[in-house]
Amino acid sequence: MSMTVRSLTRAATAGLVAAAALTAAAHSAEAADTLGSAAAGQGRYFGTAVAANHLGEADYTATLDREFSSVTPENEMKWDATEPSRGTFTFGSADRIVDHAQSQGMDVRGHTLVWHSQLPSWVGSLGASDLRTAMNAHINGLMGHYKGEIHSWDVVNEAFQDGGSGARRSSPFQDKLGNGFIEEAFRTARAADPAAKLCYNDYNTDGVNAKSNAVYDMVEDFKSRGVPIDCVGFQSHFNSNSPVPSDYRQNLQRFADLGVDVQITELDIEGSGSAQAADYTKVVEACLAVSRCTGMTVWGVTDKYSWRSGGTPLLFDGNYQEKPAHDAVLSALGGSGDPGDPGDPGDPGDGTLSCTATYTRTADWSSGYNGQVTITAGDEPISSWTTTVTLPAQQSVSSLWNGTPTRSGNVMTVRPSWNGTLAAGASTSFGFTVAKNGSDAAPAVG
C-alpha cells in the first residue's frame, strides 16, 4: 500500500514538565465579535466547509480565518479524492486544508470515510470479501494519515433511505456486506484513531420522522452493545420546501439523551433578509439549548460557492459581506459585533479568574516532538483563557490544534478555538508539533 505517514502516534509519555498560572476570562465576560469566538464563549465551535481550490482567494481566506473555528473539507477527504486507485492514497488537497486550519488554530472535521456516493469505480466492482478488506483499509489509510489531527470523523454518511420506511439505502456496502457494515466501520475507526470523535451523519433527520427514528434505533442499539459511536451529525439543509422543523431541538435532545454528542454538520438555509435570519436563529438557539450539541458547521463560506448558490443560503454574500443571517447568528451566540469588545478571546472582560496550564511531551522523534498543554479551571467557571508557550530559539512550531495561536518571535500566545468555556475544575487541552532544529529543550509555559 502506498501511503504517506503524516504524523507519529501521539502515545502518552511520562514527564509533566511545567505548570504555570495563566489568565482566564470570567464566565460573565462580555461577548466576542466573530462567529467562532462567540461560539467558543458558549462552549461550542462554529465551523464551515472549505474547498482547497479557494484558499488562494484573499477574501475567502480572510473571511474563513476571521470568523470560523472549525473546518470540514468539502470534497477533499472523500473516497474518490483520497484513494482513486486501490491502495494508492492521494492527500495533497486535503493536506492543504488541514495545514491551513492548523496554522490558524482551527479544528478539523473529517468528511467522510464510508459513503455510497463519490466512490471510485473500482470500489463497486469488488466482491463482498474484497469490499470488506478495502473498506477497512481505506478507513485505516485515511485515519492513519491524519491520526491525532482530526476532531471528529463522519465515519458513515447517509446510510438510510428517505421516505417513510426507515430502511437502509442501497449501496455497495449495504448490498454486499449487509447491515453490519456500519458497526464494522465504527469499530475499525476507533482502532485507527482512538482520540477522534466518531460520528454518523445524515440529512432529513432534523425532526422526528421515520428516517430519524431509524437512525435513533441504530444509535440506541450501538450504545447498548458498546459499539464505539460518539456523535450524530445533522446536516440541516433547509429551504421553503424543507423548513426548520418545529421539533428540531427536541430531536437533537433525544439523541443527546442516548449519550452521544450532536453536531449540526452542513447547515445552510435558502432565503434572504429577516426570514432567513429568523431561521438561522432557530437553529442556533436549538443547539445552545442542548448541552451536548457541541458545534455548528455552515456548508460554505460564501453564497457564490455554495452548492445551492441560487438560493443564497449562507451567512456571507457573493462579495463576502455579512448578511442579516450572519448578524442574527452572532447575536444568538451572544456576540457583540464590536472588535474592541472586552469579551474578545483571552480578554479578561469584567475580571480575571485563575486556572493552570501543564505541559507534557506526548510524542518524540529525532527531528521533532508533539507537545500538549492542559488548561484546568480553578474554583470558578471560566469562559476563555490565554497562555503563552515560549520555545527555545532554535525550535519552530509546524502545526497546532484545539487552540488559536498568535506568534511573536519564539513566543506563541494561545487562546481557545472551540474550547474556551470550562466548568470549575474542568480541563481542556491544545497540542502542537515542534521541529527541534538541533534543540531538544522543553518550551516554557506561562
Q: What's the tally of helices? A: 12
In the predicted model, the low-confidence regions spanning at least 5 consecutive residues are 1-5, 7-21, 25-31, 338-351
Give the ordered list of helices and strands. EHEHEHHEHHEHHEHEEHEHEHEEEEEEEE
- Could you state the oligomeric state of the chains shown? single chain
Structural class: alpha/beta
Whole-number radius of gyration? 21 Å
Major sheet description: 9 strands, antiparallel
**Strands, total number:** 18
* Shape by Cα distribution: globular
Average pLDDT: 88
As a percent range, the share of helical residues equals 25-40%
Distance between the termini: 44 Å
Strand content: 25-35%
List the SSEs and their pairings:
Blueprint: E1 16-26, H1 35-41, E2 45-50, H2 58-67, E3 70-73, H3 79-82, H4 92-103, E4 107-115, H5 121-124, H6 128-145, E5 152-157, H7 172-177, H8 180-192, E6 197-202, H9 210-225, E7 231-234, E8 237-238, H10 248-256, E9 261-269, H11 273-289, E10 293-298, H12 324-332, E11 352-365, E12 368-377, E13 382-390, E14 396-401, E15 404-408, E16 411-415, E17 427-435, E18 444-445
Parallel strand pairs: 2-3, 2-10, 3-4, 4-5, 5-6, 6-7, 7-9, 8-9, 9-10
Antiparallel strand pairs: 1-11, 1-13, 11-12, 12-17, 13-16, 13-18, 14-17, 15-16
